[in-house]
């Protein structure tokens, strides 16, 4: 969170996705979206309960999505970071203004849920919203929410990351309760970022085809006085092909390399001089067909309280940092901007069409990307991204990474 405050607005987008098909909130900036600022819809028209980031929600809710006018087009509520993720069943009302879960639905305890909504207003303009919330954890228990998902196919830069719902005081006990192994075998080490986040990675990027297994044996492990774990599960994921893309902020190009060979060199627009893009290695952590970007969510706010931008339909949005750096499609800039000028609020823009086009550079790149792929920015005037801002731990040397283990 401190990165969000420090980097307010650096290309931030508040993201929303529904199984890769729905829209979201993001921001070269934030959490809802319309980049041109034209035809601004009512603020926060899509109402979601629980609110974004809510914790300790009871199994019976509340859980609903509402619109004051227009029509809900798609709603998906899903439990995430689970061995067998499944959507929460529910229905949109006949008037299109409300989604509610099926009668008798109870949420799981100690679980994290995402809500992804796409809606049309009275003029047929599409907007999206993405929120998350967590349910109650039994008293005196702790849980780790982790990525990637079970059985996922990821890029070679994927980092296994745990966020705990409580501050961990006995980090060694918790780290001993999590085992990450691979086939073929490589050395894998943990690194703590503060008292509630633990990441795992090998010395170098994973080899394509590697099978990674994560075993959680945290049940009854005491992480803090009186706080015991409840998780006992095994998950796995597969490393796909290698794709590493290098963005040169000065040349305003992005070279996309697949398994060492050059696939394409694409013209981009990066951060403007007053809102530059981070240098360093960043890992794709989320992908959204369409998302909303609102400058207010990352500190780009006008004197009247409105965001410097609010784009409700940013296409092909790929998250690179938690503080809001995205690589995304841009349809509002003239085509000659790409490869010539850096004009963004810190994001990396690729030419696109309104609604998103698979033939445009942004759509081409999106269709060839995986969560876990690496995007490295060079020759920007900004600092190197902090290793805990998203999955950016590759910016630490191996020795510094291992120094962050409680078992060192």
What does this structure look like?
The protein has 408 residues and is mostly beta strands. It has a domain at 2-135: Immunoglobulin-like. Helices cover 6% and strands 38% of the residues. It contains four helices and 29 strands. It has helices at residues 2-6, 171-176, 361-367, 398-403, and strands spanning 23-26, 47-49, 54-57, 64-66, 71-80, 90-92, 98-101, 112-120, 126-135, 141-142, 144-147, 153-154, 160-164, 178-183, 188-192, 197-202, 211-217, 222-224, 227-229, 232-239, 243-248, 253-258, 261-267, 280-283, 286-294, 310-319, 326-330, 348-351, 374-378. The protein has a five-stranded mixed sheet with strand order 1-25-26-27-28. The chain is globular and about 60 Å long. Residues 1-27 and 29-43 have low confidence and may be disordered.
**What fraction, in percent, of the residue positions are helical?**
under 10%
* Main sheet overview: 5 strands, mixed
Terminal CA distance reads 27 Å
- The strand count comes to 29
Radius of gyration (CA) equals: 21 Å
Mean pLDDT, to the nearest integer, reads: 87
Strand content: 35-45%
CATH topology of one domain: Immunoglobulin-like
Q: Compute the number of helices.
A: 4
CATH class of one domain: Mainly Beta
Give me the side-by-side strand order of the main sheet.
Answer: 1-25-26-27-28
Report the principal-axis shape. Answer: globular
Give the name of the CATH architecture of one domain: Sandwich
**Which residue ranges are poorly predicted, with pLDDT under 50 across at least 5 consecutive positions?**
1-27, 29-43
Question: By helix and strand content, what is the structural category?
Answer: mainly beta
């Amino acid at each position: 969170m401190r990165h969000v405050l420090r980097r307010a607005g650096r290309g931030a987008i508040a993201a929303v996705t529904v199984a890769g098909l729905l829209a979201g909130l993001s921001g070269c900036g934030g959490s809802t979206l319309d980049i041109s600022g034209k035809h601004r819809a009512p603020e926060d028209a899509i109402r979601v309960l629980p609110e974004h980031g809510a914790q300790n929600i009871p199994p019976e809710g509340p859980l609903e999505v509402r619109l004051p006018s227009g029509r809900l087009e798609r709603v998906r509520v899903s439990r995430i970071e689970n061995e067998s993720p499944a959507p929460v069943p529910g229905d949109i009302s006949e008037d299109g203004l409300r989604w509610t879960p099926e009668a008798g639905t109870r949420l799981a305890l100690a679980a994290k849920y995402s809500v992804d909504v796409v809606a049309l207003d009275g003029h047929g303009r599409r907007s999206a919203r993405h929120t998350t919330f967590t349910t109650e954890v039994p008293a005196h228990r702790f849980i780790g929410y982790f990525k990637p998902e079970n059985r996922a196919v990821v890029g070679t830069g994927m980092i296994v990351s745990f966020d705990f719902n409580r501050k961990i005081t006995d980090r060694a006990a918790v780290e001993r309760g999590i085992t990450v192994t691979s086939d073929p075998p490589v050395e894998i080490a943990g690194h703590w970022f503060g008292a509630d986040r633990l990441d795992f990675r090998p010395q170098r990027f994973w080899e394509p085809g590697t099978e990674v297994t994560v075993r959680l044996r945290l049940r009854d492990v005491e992480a803090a006085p009186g706080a015991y774990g409840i998780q006992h599960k095994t998950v796995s994921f597969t490393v796909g092909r290698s794709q590493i893309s290098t963005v040169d902020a000065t040349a305003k190009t992005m070279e996309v390399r697949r398994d060492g060979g050059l696939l394409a060199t694409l013209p981009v627009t990066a951060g403007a001089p007053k809102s530059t893009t981070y240098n360093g290695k960043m890992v794709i952590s989320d992908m959204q067909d369409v998302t909303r970007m609102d400058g207010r969510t990352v500190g780009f706010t006008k004197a009247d309280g409105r965001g410097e931008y609010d784009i409700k339909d940013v296409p092909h949005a790929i998250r690179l940092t938690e503080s809001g750096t995205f690589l995304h499609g841009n349809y509002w800039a003239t085509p000659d901007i790409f490869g010539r000028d850096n004009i963004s609020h810190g994001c990396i823009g690729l030419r696109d069409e309104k609604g998103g086009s698979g033939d445009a550079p942004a759509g081409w790149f999106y269709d060839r990307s995986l969560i876990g792929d690496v995007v490295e920015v060079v020759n920007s005037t900004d600092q190197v991204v902090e290793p805990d801002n998203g999955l950016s731990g590759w910016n630490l040397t191996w020795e510094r990474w291992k120094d962050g283990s409680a078992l060192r």
